[in-house]
Amino acid sequence: MFLGSKPVPDAVGATVKRVPDVLECHLVAGTADYLLKGVAQTHSSFALRTVFKTTALPV
Description:
Blueprint: E1 2-3, E2 6-7, H1 11-17, E3 22-27, E4 34-38
């Protein structure tokens, strides 16, 4: 993993490199420490019928 052109030696980078679904890992500033880009399996589904639906909010 790199920050600019300098390698970032840390356990997170070494671990993330071994995860095949992670395509990119970026060390970022702000509220998050790392930004990951990866692939995810998707499954499609649909509702056969509505069993229950309400718009009332619990008080």
